[in-house]
Every structure is written in structure tokens, then in C-alpha cells.
Amino acid sequence: MTSPATLGELRTAQYPDRTVKQELQSNLLARLRSGTEVFSGLVGYRDSVLPTVERAILAGHDIILLGERGQAKSRLIRALTQLLDDMVPVVADCEVNDHPYRPVCRRCRELVTELGDDTPIEWIGRDRRYSEKLATPDTAVADLIGDVDPIRVAEGRYLGDELTIHYGLIPRTNRGIFAVNELPDLPERIQVSLLNILEERDVQVRGYNIRLPLDLMLVVSANPEDYTHRGRIITPLKDRFGSQVRTHYPADMEDEIAIMEQEAAPPPQSIPVTIPRHLKEVIAAFAAQLRTSTQVNQRSGVSVRFSIGALETLGASALRRAVRAGEPEAVPRLVDLWTVLPASIGRIEFDSLEEGREADILARALKQAVATVWRARLGGENFAPLLERFEAGLTVDTSDSMSSADFLAQFGVGAGRGPRAVPGLDRSIRRLGVTEESPAGVAGALEFTLEGLHLGKRLNKESTAGGGFVFGDI
């Protein structure tokens, strides 16, 4: 059906006159009635954060999101646009997306008065109804609200003419959602400029005698510690937000893994890269260990981006080894987990008393994570036959550059001999979900088994000069 092109056609089509908050409420209620997912792409918030957000929308509130870094605050804000209509009408060529029924800028008011039902309209999508600004110390009121446009003055208009105003980001997001990320970083004198927007719903520009009643939803994010760290949110501004929503890190391992799988960048498609489930569990357990460590600055937090980056590094390490060795598939082994530490150490803020011990703290947390997953996966298994081989003098080398074939050859696996050549290995790979058809997967399962035995003080493990490790009898 052809969309109305004039104000008269819009009235004839009985297009509803509603504010952006009423639009969000109506579309949210429609999704709740149908049972469809309200927000897609947000893992771990279904029973905690999202109900609070939904109540805030239904209440018609502006929202402040509080949470440490890497808790998907920006993603959650952008997800609100999913509740906007696909297309809405505006007065054609309007800078502030005026509703044809209720124009607020002078240009559109005069146009509607002059043309009436013949006023041309256009339709805009969700992309033009959302804007966000990262709060920085150099942000000016002109960026957010607007300022005099010297070009328009030079064209002959009077300085006091409203048409000389160049509108800022907030007026240009009229009839949409405007977001400010890291609000405490915004200077207090700039925060004052938001007071009228949240209460009186209007803006004032450079002392012009105008009132521009805006129709928008304002959403901001902040780290709770920023109230006393880099800056603070002024009390009158905090008071004007109707709802406060507290975000959090993934509550369980399943959510952390789901986020990693969803967000991690795919590796180059030169050869297949398969990351075993148990190593994903180790990364999730690793992040959980750090989030409870007294040696890590918990006010800063341990972002989910830490887990995502660790997963990407793990896959990259396996891919590098497989390509150099000419293997047909890349499967990370436990030795690849140690490559995560130097790549991730800069993501964590430690207690000031731990200066110089950061690498040791991360290594200890990683060992605890491996031990936790190993007990859950392989605990109770009988590894006595395997340990007997080490007691008889077997030693096993490993490194992030050693091919899977070379690693397995130390146990006599390969050249027609499968996993059964190693006592108990067939049971281990089944419990780890690895197939015998994948030599790289079998190598990973075996190395994981050895690492757990070492952490359980049943095998010795020493570092080598080349950056690798050697397992042997205690």
C-alpha cells in the first residue's frame, strides 16, 4: 500500500497520534501478549534485568543503567529500538523529525499553517530515530542542544531569528531514543543542560525566546563507581530519571559461554577451527574466578569482553599451529590457554598492592579454573593404567607449536594405532565429547587429562626453555 505523502492523506488514513513512549509501550504490550521475544541478542538478562526495563517502559520512564564495564549496557540501550515502529511520518525535510500533527520547530509550524493538508511528509526508519553520545570532558552544550549557525546568519537572517539555530544531537533525535554513554564523564555544567529535557521536555538554545517541546526517551549508562571516581551524576539529574536498572555479569557458566559464542569473531576460513566445549568452560570458569578474586579491582570489574577475547585468542593459537604443521583441522589444546594470559593481562585492573604479581595472579586463577572443570568432567575416572606408564619412565613434551600428531606419537597413537593405545583415553574423550576421528581433538583431550592429573598432584610438570612443558612422574 502506498504510504500517505501529505498531511491530509495521513489524516484520512487515521494515523494514530502518539508519543514515542506511547509507541514503545504499545509495541511492548503487543510482544508480551504474543509471547514473542521482546529483546533479541541479550543473554542472561531474561529473569533479572529485562523485567525491570520492561516495567520502566510501561511506566513511561527515562532510564539510567548502572553496571560495570562489559555488561552489555550499550547493547541493551540499542535493543530498545526494536520496539520502535518500522517507519513513522515526519514533516518533509525537517531537521527535528516533527510530527505532522504536532510540529514544534518554527519552520514546520509556518509550513503547516501555509499549506495545511497539502503539507508534504516523508517516512523515516528506526535508524534515524536513535542517537547516542559518548560523554567526554570536551562535550559542549552546543553538541547536545544546539547553537547559532554562522552560515545562516551570513545568509541574511537576523541573529535573534530562530531559523539561525543549528540543532544539536538531542533535538535531531526528536520522536526517538537518545542515549548518553558513561554519563558521569559529562562535566556537571553540561549535565545541567539535560534537566529541562527530562522534566519540562523542552530545550533552550543560546537564550533564544523559544520553547521546543521534544518527544523522546532518554537513556543513559554509568559505572556505579564513577559517582566517586572520574565524576558524578548531579543529584537533580539523577532525581529526574524514573527508573534505575542494575546490570550484572553472567550468573552462570552457560550464559557466559553463550555470550562468548555469540560475540566472538569467526577465525579465518583457511581450515576448520573447532574449540572443544570443555575449554570454553575453562574460560568461563577463569572469568568467574577473577570476578571473585580479592586481588582484582572489582570496582572496575572483569568484562565479558575478557572472555570473548580469550576465546578468540585460543582459536587463533590453534589455527597458527595447525597451519604451520599442515594439519587439516585446528583444535585448541590446554597449552593454548597459556597464550591467553599475555594477550589479556591489560584487560584486568588489579589491586594496587599486587603490583608486579599480575601474571602470577592470572596463572593461579587459570589453574583453579582448569581444576574445577576437570573435576566436573573427568572426576572419578580411573587413570591408574595411564599413570603406570609415567612411573615406567614415560615423559611427554608439549608446546603451542607442537603438532597434534607429534604430541600423540609420544603415546604411540598414530600410524594405525588409535586412542585405545593409551589406557583409559577412550573413556576420557567420550566424557569430553571428542570423537576418535579427530586426531587434534584426541590430542586436546589427552593433554587436558594430563593437566588435571598434574593439578591433582599425580603428575609432575615442568617448564622448558622453549616455552613449552614436560609431563613426567612425580
What features would you describe in this structure?
The structure is a single chain. This protein is of the alpha/beta class. It is elongated. The protein has helices spanning 7-12, 20-34, 49-58, 73-79, 106-115, 141-144, 150-154, 169-172, 188-191, 195-199, 235-240, 253-263, 277-292, 304-325, 334-337, 340-344, 358-378, 384-391, 404-409, 425-431, 439-455; strands at 63-66, 87-91, 121-125, 130-134, 146-148, 165-167, 176-181, 202-203, 212-213, 216-222, 243-246, 396-398, 460-463, 469-472. Helices cover 41% and strands 12% of the residues. The strands form five sheets. The protein has a five-stranded parallel β-sheet with strand order 4-7-10-1-11, with helices on one face. Strands 12-14-13 form a three-stranded antiparallel β-sheet, with helices on one face. Strands 2-3 form a two-stranded antiparallel ribbon. The longest helix is centred in the middle third of the chain and has 22 residues, at 304-325. The termini are far apart. It folds into two domains: 7-246, P-loop containing nucleotide triphosphate hydrolases (Rossmann fold); 253-472, no CATH class.
